[in-house]
Amino acid sequence: MKNLNRPLEFPKARHDPESGYTLHGRRFDDPYLWLEQLDSAETRAWIAAQEAVTHSVLRSVPGRNGLRASVARAARYARLSPPILAGPHGREFLWQADASDDKLKFMLRRSKGAPLETMLDPNTWPSGEALVFAVPSPDGALVAFGKAVGGTHAAVIHVVDVETGRQLPDRPRGTSHTSLAWRPDASGFFYAACPEPGEVPTGDEAHWNAIYEHQIGSGVPARRVFGDDHSKEYWCSVKVTECRRFAVLSKWDYVHANVIYLLRLSDDAFVPVAPVMRSLNQVQVIGDSLLIQTDLDAPRGRLCIAPLKAPEEWRTLIPENADTLQTVTGVGGRLYAVYSHAASHRVRIHAEDGTSLRDLGLPALGSVNRNEGEGIISGISGAWDGKEVWVSFTSYVQAPSVYQYDYAMDRLSPYHVPDAGLDASEYVTDQVWYESLDGTRISMFIIHRKDLPRDGRQFVRLSGYGGFNVSVEPRFSALTAAWLKLGGVLAFANVRGGGEYGRAWHEAACKTRRQNAFDDYIAAARWLVSAGYTMPSKLASRGNSNGGLLVAVAAMQAPEAFGAVYCRVPTLDMLRFPNFSYLSSATVEYGSPEDPVEGTYLAGYSPYHNVQTERRYPVMTFVSALNDQTAPPHDPLKMVAKLQAGGTQGGPYLLLPLRNSGHGGGTTLTALIEQDVDELSFYCWALDVAPPMSGIPHDGDGTHQRW
Length: 707
Prior knowledge:
Helix content is 16%, strand content 33%. The protein is an alpha+beta fold.
């Protein structure tokens, strides 16, 4: 960055001095409001010109080809899921990809020992199309799958005949199809969707989510089974119980609470289980009992049991303890409880009556569960009446793997452990605790080579999230693997607002307590310096989605603490976020700009409204996914325009638009690799890190040549 041949020449954004509004008696200028019109010729031209400047920087970084080789080595590994049993004679389905595949394939094995056959291969589709989900019917004759374009949201359900490979003409109604579960007789399926265009007022197309039932081949429009007639903000999910007697219908208030009903499939009668929106609950049916995992009256979670005859009469089976209960899965007649223990996972096995039997030893400090659209998904799978126990596992230095657990032998055996080119034995994952501004102790993971010198000169990438009950837990990525191979240090702070330590930890940074998350994150950066890992000029701050908001606010409030900021698909205008339809329900997390107290609080930290001309901000890249349906793709545009015009003491400030990408990035592995290469190139450019010209070998003494 310091050796630019010439100053970067950014295209100027038109400044509209008349654009703005008054809120709670205060005038707010919004001179770049016009950039919210992504399809206008003026906006498109400005994006293209900004993109050209950004690419001129990132694509000229020496050693970029070596970065690409390193990312590709860590990203291109064979993938394999546990089998999904469906149909007669041991027929099973699974997800699989070779190292050369750009997308996961959905595979079929007709019987035990039979060769794998390709059922759905999205690698043969156009690059912008993604296979989002695939669910076989109980008889294994059909597969319902979701196809999305330009990202992984707004999927459309299709149905394919397994024997012929022919797609059926069925097209379920509604938009943004998700969460699919078949009727036990395979006559149809339940799914979550938003209404058809024209069925709701303009602007509400992303709301009024509900559960519908589609009958295969009937030609009859899907019937609405479950939803809400009063609140448009709730979203729904559905699954069918293993016993095939019930559909579990959930209605969610974002990630804060949900209600649950059972739909008895024999007569379509509704059975209330958790009918009041006051807690987070997950339900499964075992025999004549309901198991209810809940945080009701237990901020760190407990497991309850209730008879099916009286489903609201809960009795505690596994009480709350010091760890946070994330999931409970019944397999082989036992209960496998996955806990968050200081932000990594522990698995405890219980008898059916709740008695603790033993802990399941995991390969290392890591993660079993994962976060998806339907909340936390258990990494333990299998059947209550079956014998096979499948365990998913990943860590900061181990790619997602699958193990089988033998209870009788108390043995965890590898089923699929891929080679991602990173030798885990060369690295150490430490967990440290530091104090935030108000004295609260915060945990943080630090990952580095075992031979790292603590000389205050290391390049560190700090990340966090701090919202929506999402936990920052040990997970592998090709990007972080390449950073480690480059000699860098990774730091992940478990700031308040996440779910690592239960409901109270999450609520400690909601609405008018949001500053706690920002304080926690800034304190993490300062601790890394005081502890001798790095100095501010060598510290990169990286956040994605809500984490993008986190790192942007931290940079506005404490710019001297960071050398570079990579802010990916964030929300940055905190006074207009509800106008972006997919975020209007996020007021339960952030608060409402329309509320006098909450609106004033939001204005106090909103990055777009807090750019100060006299402050020297670090060099920053703002990433916008132009097909984003989760966060406003125009917010990074407005922020860059304002910083380039007003934040002249620091920077520079780059805009990196992701074309044909949604919130999660591109739809192909090739596209994701290139996005990672751009991010690594930014760190190298901004922090003066010199990657080798080809590959990223370790130098033995823990150092690399710098430019």
